Amino acid sequence: MASTFPVVDLWLLQTEKRAETMDKIKDACENWGFFELVNHGISHEVLDTIEKLTKEHYKKCMEQRFKEMVASKGLEAVQTEIDDLDWESTFYLKHLPVSNLYEVPELEDKYRNVMKDFALKLEKLAEHLLDLLCENLGLEQGYLKKAFYGSNGPTFGTKVSNYPPCPKPELIKGLRAHTDAGGLILLFQDDKVSGLQLLKDGNWIDVPPMKHSIVINLGDQLEVITNGRYKSIEHRVIAQQDGTRMSIASFYNPGSDAVIFPAPELVEKAEEENKLKYPKFVFEDYMKLYAGLKFQAKQPRFEAMKAVETTVNISPIETV
């Protein structure tokens, strides 16, 4: 029988169940690459408002455009599998190092303000989680945040997606299988329409929709920094015939010039054959490579970065 998808109650860290909760996070990071957070400190009211405004924005500004795109490509009538397109309607918001929130057209002021507030809360939550990961990994507090910092702080942005009803879900994916390139991903997803799946032990497993939860998953950069102790996991979105699925994924990533490499402490602790499995590179270089290879296996990306291993000088990461 498959083990249950990990759900972590963050509030329990303040109780006598702290050690048990840290173990649950550790197990989720090592064996799943995903977990679902409840009692994460972002109010239900904020989440309900964001869901309402996101769905209204899609209906008002994006739904018709999506239908026109489907009609222009003849997607209603496809007979064979489509492998170069995703059945999704998206827009992107940048928060750090520079926000574009007030330049994205068509967003109502109330929606902009709510998203700005939400991004600040998610940024704090991401940094809190990175410190919990440091604790579990035996790294100094602040190590991961500093590793992501670069010269201008982390890169942080949000992909707002809607997955409308699809007439041929067996032929068109909502989003093709991939691992995420960056650091820590925080997802607020629809609690009524499912679709997100992850690959575990060769099987596709549903990430269950849960009201007011935030789904966390680990990107390629955390796999590199932890020298493979934590892994980024392949996931996809299955299009559904009924209902539009909302997905708001925020990516807390390294700064573009951050130099990413396995934490020396974790390399020292590794078994001999795993001493140094991963390359050292500048995050922006990895992203350029990823842009063309997103829907392919991650291992060749790591190998390609090894081949151009950066000569950037690495001084120890200061955590104070």
UniProtKB/TrEMBL annotation:
GO molecular function term, any single one: L-ascorbic acid binding
Cited InterPro entries:
DIOX_N (IPR026992), IPNS-like_FE2OG_OXY (IPR044861), IPNS-like_sf (IPR027443), Oxoglu/Fe-dep_dioxygenase_dom (IPR005123), Plant_2OG-oxidoreductases (IPR050295)
GO terms for biological process? cellular response to fatty acid; coumarin biosynthetic process; ethylene biosynthetic process; response to molecule of fungal origin
- Cofactor(s) recorded in Swiss-Prot or TrEMBL: Fe cation
Pathway connected to this protein: Alkene biosynthesis; ethylene biosynthesis via S-adenosyl-L-methionine; ethylene from S-adenosyl-L-methionine: step 2/2
Q: Which Pfam families match?
A: 2OG-FeII_Oxy, DIOX_N
SUPFAM superfamilies associated with the record? Clavaminate synthase-like
Q: Known Gene3D superfamilies for this protein?
A: B-lactam Antibiotic, Isopenicillin N Synthase, Chain
Q: Where is the Fe2OG dioxygenase domain?
A: 154-254
* EC numbers: 1.14.17.4
Catalytic function, reaction form: 1-aminocyclopropane-1-carboxylate + L-ascorbate + O2 = ethene + L-dehydroascorbate + hydrogen cyanide + CO2 + 2 H2O
User: Which key words are in the record?
Assistant: Ethylene biosynthesis, Iron, Metal-binding, Oxidoreductase, Vitamin C
Q: Does the keyword Iron apply?
A: yes
Similarity comment: Belongs to the iron/ascorbate-dependent oxidoreductase family.
Q: Which PANTHER family match?
A: OXOGLUTARATE/IRON-DEPENDENT DIOXYGENASE
What is this protein's name? Answer: aminocyclopropanecarboxylate oxidase
- Supply the source organism for this entry: Nicotiana tabacum
